[in-house]
């Protein structure tokens, strides 16, 4: 992977946002989506052309792969606004960590968002496996194993609803990012980046803050 020092991709120097400014911009976009007043910014041909050789995303969104969780729509974003990484159940692996670290080290993104949602199928499958002791086949088992700590934590708190487990899984995912990545941890400690966990409500279209590392 190339970086600034060897002629690779560069972040634009203009319009650099603080974590707090990035968080407000993301929240404003979600409010427009909830209210049905989305502006669909940065989707015209001229903006597309301006991004050919560079980009300046103000957020990296690590969310579930669920088809109802399209980040650019939920937050009313356009081309170049968000660096998006998705896996089922927003499960972390080394490639996810590498992708998120790239967005911080090379693109200087000021906000990392962990995006979970109601009725998550991966969390539901994990809940079923924990309750029955029957593990799913194939690599779905790997997803379940990685989500299991969040489900067990919820059960120890006597929280048995899937949506409560989703919130706990978002919190644990955000915490794990900061714990496991020295690059992300340093950016948070230096107030260059914040890590927030959001729980998306499918019915309302609202993304609620459930976890926060850093200054907003």
TrEMBL record:
Gene Ontology terms describing biological process: carbon utilization
Coiled-coil zones: none
Binding site for Zn(2+): 64, 66, 117, 120
Catalytic activity: hydrogencarbonate + H(+) = CO2 + H2O
Note describing how the cofactor binds: Binds 1 zinc ion per subunit.
Reported cofactor(s): Zn(2+)
Pfam families in alphabetical order: Pro_CA (PF00484)
EC number of this enzyme: 4.2.1.1
MF (Gene Ontology): carbonate dehydratase activity; zinc ion binding
Protein family membership: Belongs to the beta-class carbonic anhydrase family.
Protein name: carbonic anhydrase
């Amino acid at each position: 992977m190339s970086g600034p020092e060897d002629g690779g991709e560069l972040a634009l120097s203009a319009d650099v946002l603080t974590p707090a400014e990035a968080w407000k911009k993301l929240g404003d976009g979600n409010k427009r989506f909830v209210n049905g007043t989305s502006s669909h910014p940065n989707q015209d041909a001229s903006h597309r052309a301006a991004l050919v050789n560079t980009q300046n995303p103000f957020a990296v969104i690590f969310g579930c792969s669920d088809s109802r969780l399209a980040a650019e729509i939920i937050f009313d974003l356009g081309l170049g606004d968000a660096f998006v990484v998705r896996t089922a159940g927003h499960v972390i692996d080394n490639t996810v960590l590498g992708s998120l670290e790239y967005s911080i080290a090379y693109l200087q993104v000021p906000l990392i968002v962990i995006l979970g949602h109601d009725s998550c199928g991966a969390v539901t499958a994990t809940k079923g496996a924990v309750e029955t002791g029957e593990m799913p086949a194939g690599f779905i088992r790997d997803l379940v194993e990685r989500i299991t700590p969040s489900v067990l934590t919820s059960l120890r708190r006597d929280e048995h609803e899937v949506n409560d487990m989703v919130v706990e899984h978002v919190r644990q995912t955000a915490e794990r990012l900061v714990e496991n990545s020295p690059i992300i941890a340093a950016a948070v400690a230096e107030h260059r980046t914040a890590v927030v966990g959001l729980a998306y409500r499918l019915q309302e279209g609202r993304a609620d803050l459930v976890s926060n590392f850093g200054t907003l």
